[in-house]
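Lecture 7 notes: from sequence to structure.

We start with a single chain of 157 residues. Read the sequence below before looking at the structure.
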Amino acid sequence: MLVDDDSVNRLLGHTILEKFNCQTDIAVSGHEAIDKLSQSHFDIVLLDIHMPDISGLDVAEYLRAKKKDRATKIVAVTAAIMKDDIKKYYQAGIDDFLIKPYKEINLFNKMCDVFKVKDMPNTKSKAEIILKRIPCNQQKVQPGGAKKNGWRKCRLH
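Now the structure, written as tokens:
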């Protein structure tokens, strides 16, 4: 899931994730993110920290404390990267952070980091590298051409 109150940031993130062949759910606020998190499982949440209604920190704390979900990876997407900020992210249960503004390769590398992709096999696309290693919820695995290539197409919501 991609969570950001800024339409330009949502468009950028969604466009990049589409290039990675990821199906993406989008939330435009912290409230909407919590609603979606309460109803579904997500492999990863790309989470804006500064939103007008509920902060990204509060969303992360909800996911970790109230829902007791440690499996979902949370990446803070933010320009706030002071030492104290980063400490708060980790205390809230955020796995890592991505500095705004970012490029496609930054998001790709961050996803590889959080899903612990270490080797770079000879593949046709960046999506294959990431998705082959995501421990997908079996309900989210999509049928189709992915099987013939030996990798799974996951919904990253």
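The longest helix spans residues 7-19. Keep this in mind for problem set 3.
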